[in-house]
Amino acid sequence: KWEGVETGTGTGVFVGNVTIGTSLSGSTYQMKDPTRGNMYTTNLNNGTSGNGTLFTKATDTWGDGTATNKESAAVDAHFGVSMTWDYYKNTYGRNGIRNDGVGAYSRVHYGSNYVNAFWDDSCFCMTYGDGSGNTHPLTELDVAGHEMTHGVTSNTAGLIYSGESGGLNESTSDVFGNMVEWYANISKDNPDYLVGELIDINGNGTPLRYMDQPSKDGASADNWSSTVGNKDVHYSSGVGNHAFYLLSEGSGAKVINGVSYNSPTFNNIPVTGIGHDKAAAIWFRALTTYWTSTTNYANARAGMLSAATDLYGANSAEYNATATAWAAVNVGS
Ligand code: ASN
Ligand code: ZN
Predict the structure, then answer these.
(1) How many domains does the chain have?
(2) Cβ–ligand 1 contact at 232 (below 6 Å)
(3) Whose CA is nearest to atom 4 of ligand 1?
(4) What is the pLDDT at residue 229?
(5) Residue in 114, 113, 95, 96 with CA at minimum distance from that of residue 105
């Protein structure tokens, strides 16, 4: 600990009670973390432009877990950036989104009834709405990891946000968003292969997306087809999400942390998983070493095979599982 660096306590809407990195300026605490690239969190207070106002207060205790307390969503967002920062740093040695030690900031309470969250390269920041009725903020951990990963993708492969490369871009954000959940391992937000399962974006308790069988959302693709690149990138992402699930957990039915999954495959090709940590390591190496702005699903498979060779060897179980997982979503054979 050094001058000005503090550890605060917060209660988020989704994370529950956590410690967050803060700082002390004079006698005022700030929601700003010098230990993670000075990342900070601001209040847009229903506005839709500008940097927002840095969260500050006289005590280092933030939020109460309710969405009406404006600090609660900020605690979730701030904690989400912390865990994403720590995941990339401690897993891959990546020092922030650009690997330059600079933290991205978060803006919460964007607009009114805004049911989305987004990353913006130009402000190097992410933004969260308060959801339907302004009572369902979008500040879940896997959403924070998803949005920050858009920054990582922009600064590495640079996958163009349309067609198959756009689906792969979205899938990369879903993959690492969920990896952040596994890394943080919070009991109030159990790690899973679902995206946005706590934010109740559909109003009926269902998640935004499912990686085991993406078509469960009613729109996403389970497998590659020649027209999959015509879908919205949040639906063509299903091909990549399904491949990641299969590479991690394998095909068929499974219960993990109390959640039931079922992952049928293209042509019933059986897949044996290698675990999400190895699957993510192969994905990350492909993203940062082999993929380019125009990488489609066939190229994604090729890049991951090269990455698997680098990490585990040419005839490794991990290489073979990567080949089979992509074949099982109709990419290569
Ligand atoms: N939440 C969405 C996403 O990160 C926003 C968008 O459509 N770009 O993909
Ligand atoms: Zn996205």
Answers:
(1) 2
(2) no
(3) 118
(4) 98
(5) 96
